[in-house]
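Lab channel / #folding
Pinned by the channel admin:
"Please post every new chain as: sequence first, then the structure tokens as a reply. Keep commentary short and put observations after the output so the thread stays searchable."

First post following the new format, from NK:
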Amino acid sequence: MKKKPVVDLDNYRFDDQLKAMQEIAETGDCPFCMENFAAHQEEETLFDGKFWLLTYNRWPYKHTKVHLLAIYKEHAEHLSEVNPEAGTELIEVFQWAAAHFDVPGGGFVMRFGDTNYSAGSVHHLHAQFIQPDIESDTYEPVRVKLGKSKK
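Reply from TO:
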């Protein structure tokens, strides 16, 4: 029986990201599941809670000063699969991040479900914590894509 895809190769943003995603697709192992995480993650773990693991985004969006990923520790793709208590912990994780990085403002987005709608690259529930780099000489607003581009 063929495994369900764990990454969506259409939603890459960088060439080295595509290469990593192709290697992950070959194995069929979800890179955000805890049993596979260390093999695919080069960035340090910043916060390790009951429900969430927080790390740097390996491929941050352009014009960000801080770009972190909060990864749900159990494999889930849809909100219906998440323990409601995890919502409380996610806010605590993001409160920690805002204090730790002295973030005066920013945003967060959670990708879930069908990647045609979410434009996610990994089929595993995760949230992104983002501070734009508004002091940069080359600053432009950070753009978050939802929905796959039609080809």
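NK: Helices lie at 15-27, 34-40, 85-100, 115-118.
TO: also worth noting, The first strand starts at residue 45 and ends at 48.
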